[in-house]
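re: ur question from earlier - yeah i can do the single chain one, its not a big deal. heres the input i used so u can compare w yours
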Amino acid sequence: MGINGHDIEVPIGEHHVVMSYTDRPGIVAVYGQKFGEAGINIAGMQVARREAGGQALTVLTVDSRVPDELLAEVGKAIDASVIRSIEITEA
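and the output i got, formated as tokens:
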């Protein structure tokens, strides 16, 4: 699957988080810690970028819904240009 020109392969589940931010060391640790503290398990993850220090795109598959407040907190902590939760459910 591709998103905004990035090749992405993650397990498809019911709950996903998509984020875009400037690539720099320590970002995965920041959102990993915040999701962990909130009791949200990351089941799959892919980080894609075109160049070091450029825009990174991360897609997470998570085990439960991510509250809007946590999305906002993570987005602020990593200075995300985009952070969205995607829910895939059966019709």
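The chain is about 25% helix and 35% strand. not sure if urs matches, ping me
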